[in-house]
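$ run holo --ligand "(4S)-4,5-diaminopentanoic acid" --emit tokens
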Amino acid sequence: MGSKYWFDRAKQVIPGGVNSPVRAFNAVGGTPVYFKSGKGAKVQTEDGTELIDFCGSWGPLILGHARDEVVEAVSEAAANGLSFGANTAKEAEFAELICGCVPSIDMVRLVSSGTEAVMTAVRLARGFTGRQKIIKFNGCYHGHTDYMLVASGSGLLTGGISSSAGVSPSAAAEVFVAPYNDLNAVQEILRANGDETAAVIVEPIAGNMGLVEPAEGFLEGLRAATAECGALLIFDEVITGFRLGPTTFSTLCGITPDITTLGKIIGGGMPIGAIGGRREVMEKLAPLGPVYQAGTLSGNPVAVSAGMKTLQLLRDENPYPCMAELGKRLANGVDRVAAEKELALHCAQTGGLFTPFFRKEPVCNLDDSKACDAEAHARFFHHMLDHGIYTAPSSFEVSFISAAHTEADIDEYIQALETL
Ligand code: HOZ
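-- output --
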């Protein structure tokens, strides 16, 4: 029973056959691959094939699939109880660990997903400032809360829509949208609406229109502009948190946001999200303050155990320089092959994050990303898949190198590309 069999069966009972639209292969066509198991950098499929996985569950699996110590931590926690809906020592230790790793986070509240983290962060910003408006960036994705689906990235782009149906016009009207990397546009919005603006939310490295790094001075400018008008700065680090070092990207780049959202890696492959920030802001959350947030499974002991073990291993083993070297090796290889074969292609890369963009010119915002050759990307994706390489099934996503990948895995990627 292969992927096609399971997809046909799933489509009868799951909308589109998938539990998240990005899995539907809409951008690349064909039948989505059904995964059976994973270990390290490799996955086994229901088609009986083995693939080198550069998607890594969209980011959480920085240590690779089923790392022994993480699985042991999960098994031990599960044997002691799957959920209590009450406090555990482990969640206090985990919060201490996160606060210890991220200087801008004095306090942290755990939730169950990145979407929930952003929803809470925005409510917190509104509760703290007493203002309603939010500024976001075109092509940044912050989960699927109503007002964050305006001009969103990720799966909305592959579906050919930039905003979701079902979002009330009043929710959408509270959001201003600026082009990514365009500080002037933000300053202009704030000049006219600064006293109504609760927060600017940004992926400090954009990862949902492909990989787009912040232009020099962009994040610093956002920090200064928000501080000037009393709006909060929210860094959505669901992708970048603990991805480029054992901390947030904000720590690495020396910019202090008021609120940070986390997810993915901090759950080590289990569902989790977190909101962290400075004490004065975080103390507005219930039960200390008037901003309500709750969750039966928030701080779930199994998820916390997976996350805790993952962060400890990252701290103890420091795989970051190695992942960055592999990332550079991959990007150099892609660019070399592109030059040799005269392909309109270049690879954006930082650390273990990368996106092959099918155009020669750099990609600095969503318009640039949309100008890439989508058909060339789809051909590339299926060619790589046929050669045992699994990457993000859309050019509006990032791919991930984990601590489990080796030089040989990177070289296989490049060899596959050479025969494109
Ligand atoms: N942020 C991920 C995609 N960019 C989430 C994956 C999903 O939407 O399922």
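-- notes --
The mean pLDDT is 96.
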